[in-house]
Structure formats: structure tokens, C-alpha cells
Specification:
Elements (H helix, E strand, L loop, with lengths): L3 H5 L2 E4 L8 H14 L4 E5 L5 H5 L10 H6 L4 H4 L1 E2 L5 E4 L8 H6 L7 H6 L8 E5 L6 H9 L2 E7 L4 H18 L5 E10 L4 H13 L4 E7 L2 H5 L7 H4 L4 H15 L2
Parallel strand pairs: 1-5, 1-6, 2-4, 2-5, 6-7, 7-8
Antiparallel strand pairs: 3-4
Helix pairs in contact: 2-13
Length: 259
Amino acid sequence: MTSGVLDAVRVLAIANQKGGVGKTTTVINLAAYLGALEFKVLVVDCDPQSNATRSITPATPVEDSLYQVLMEGAAAEPAIVSTTTPNVDLLASSPELAGAEIELAGMHDRESVLARNLKGIVGSYDFTLIDCPPSLGLLTINALVAAEGLIIPVQCEYLALEGVAHLMDTIRRVRSGLNPRLRVFGLLMTMYDRRTSLSEEVVAEVRSHYPDLTFETLIPRNVRLGEAPSFGQPILDYDPGSSGAQAYASFAREVMARG
């Protein structure tokens, strides 16, 4: 399934150097809703914590992980497995990936290893979603070099903009020296609680600084969103009527519409 939007942006990294902001939740649920709309989606788990890998259920056994692809020369295509989520495939992470930061440091063209391995594969997918670790280390830089667009989840809490500013500086450096195609696809406000003035204030502040980049959809604090990964399911399957499910359905529509 193709469109003008997909011609512009096919590979999206989801990144924020701050942990606990909803990166993996966004990756797995955006993938599920795009898959339900019959887009073919590849999830690349670039985080050694492997949360995305544990949050969706492979339909076939995982033999090689992203570590073997990046560090041991394994071919990427055979390492990709189908999942029980319709139209969603996975290039899995593993704990071994934690050592990749050190191993990559000594490699030639170390920032582009992921991009080289995904070249020729991402064209088979409507969307490739890269789940990044909560840091601005070499794994995240590799994701930014491989990506065409960046989605930044921003938690509705104090100092939210501080982390975004650091990430924006990194993006400028990546664009100038490594990947001129990269652009910020959007900022997604997460863990929004409409009962608190803090959430409202943070959303207003982020939108005032990035009015054209901030998505309209607000992802709420929702217990069901937190429960779903422990069952290896996206919220679409676990509780499609929940407020979290409705929010991610809305977000997927925004992603499709934004070119």
C-alpha cells in the first residue's frame, strides 16, 4: 500500500535520550495500527533492553538478532521474523547488543553500520520503525543515520523541553555530517493526564516552541497500555476500546496524513 506520504518518509526512528517516555509503546502500537490498515511494517529493535522484542510475539523463532547483523556479519533479511501482529515483521534485539556501543567505536564508518545493513530491505516495507535506546550513543546515531524521519515522544512533565533541545542539537549534527535526509517528523506528547494542570502546561509549552511539529494526538496515561506488553500484544489486540487504543489509532492516522 503506497501514497505520497510514504514516498517521502519510509523509515522512522523513535528516539528520546530520556527513558520512560513511551518510545517502545509508540513503536509497537503505531506498527500494529499501520499493519491493521494493511501497510507492511518492519520493527527494528535497536535497544539492548529488548522491550519491543518482548512486547510483540514472533510467529517464528528468532535465531539471529540485530547484534549478529551489526557485529558478526549476519545477513539482515534472514534475521527478520514475522510476528503474530498482522503485517508486522521484526528485527529483534538481544542483551548482547549492550556491548555494541563499545565494539562499534573501533569500526570504520561506525555511524552508518545499520543503514548499510538495512539498505535494500526497507524498500520492501511501507514503514520501518526503529526503536532507539534511551541515550544519544552510537546505536541511536546509527538509527538516525538510517532514518528519514524522527518521531520524538515527549512525556508531559517538567523539563520536557530540555531533553528535546539536546536531541534537536544532535539532529542538526547528524544532518550536517551524516544524513542530510533526516528531518523531525513530529513530537508526540505522552503520559498526558487531563486531570492535572501540569500536563496542560507542558503540552502548551511544547506546542508554543514547536507549533508545526507537535502532533495533535495526546497519548494518555493508561493502565491498559502498560499491561499489554506483558501479554506480547499491542493495545489494538489487548483492549481496543481503551483510551490508549483510541489515542494510538488517532496517532496512526496523523502519521499517514503527515507528508
